[in-house]
């Protein structure tokens, strides 16, 4: 099993450009999350999904959109990138009924995004 | 509101024991989790306390006291590879499988 994968690993954008980050998980998890992590800081939740076809806003949703058309995929879109969106983006998934902790989240390797 | 507080940085010596504290303010939660993150890496799950008391997993132990709104992660026989950031997190009763995260504690280990 690959677990949680993210593409791309690195990306440099110019202000105003758009892009989509892809997250895929092969653990059949219901819940998926997008976080951003700025240097020396903790994780901040952008959007999350509790199942295929559902999405909800997290702590810092402005400037981002998401879609969960298939259970295994969770896409994060930036419509018009801004320098303030320079960050490391992590995708995570969880299954509320199994694992050491029913709320254990499994993380992808991250996408390092720079907006110039 | 709900918040978790951790020290920003802790320094310890290789082979020693270190405790990383986490205090929280929340109306209620299901349990306290701990994650480890090495520089440049992704967070990985370490432990979970659903009930008060001590949970031990090898060199790592985690403790929870709901009455004191307090938990800690205890690392024994420190190794250089334990140098990382450690995050505590809780799931609030009114959340939807969301975790509320602390800002993280950077553990620096000296030889």
Helix-strand blueprint:
The complex is a heterodimer of chains A (116) and B (111).
Chain A: E1 4-7, E2 10-13, E3 19-25, E4 31-37, E5 43-49, E6 56-57, E7 64-67, E8 73-78, E9 87-94, E10 106-107, E11 111-115
Parallel strand pairs in A: 2-11
Antiparallel strand pairs in A: 1-3, 3-8, 4-5, 4-9, 5-6, 7-8, 9-10, 9-11
Chain B: E1 3-5, E2 9-13, E3 18-25, E4 29-37, E5 44-49, E6 53-57, E7 60-65, E8 70-75, E9 84-92, E10 100-101, E11 105-110
Parallel strand pairs in B: 2-11
Antiparallel strand pairs in B: 1-3, 3-8, 4-5, 4-9, 6-7, 7-8, 9-10, 9-11
Explain how this protein is built.
The complex is a heterodimer of chains A (116) and B (111). Chain A is mainly β and 116 residues long. Chain A is 0% helix and 48% strand. Chain A contains no helices and eleven strands. In chain A, the strands form two sheets. In chain A, strands 2, 4, 5, 6, 9, 10 and 11 form a seven-stranded mixed sheet that branches. A four-stranded antiparallel sheet of chain A has the order 1-3-8-7, with no helix packed on it. Chain A is globular. Chain A starts with a strand and ends with a strand. Chain B starts with a strand and ends with a strand. Chain B is 0% helix and 59% strand. Classes of the chains: A mainly beta (116), B mainly beta (111). Chain A binds chain B through residues 31, 33, 41-45, 48, 50, 56, 58, 90, 92, 94, 96, 100-101, 103-110, and chain B through 30-31, 33, 41-45, 47-48, 50, 87, 91, 96-99, 101-104.
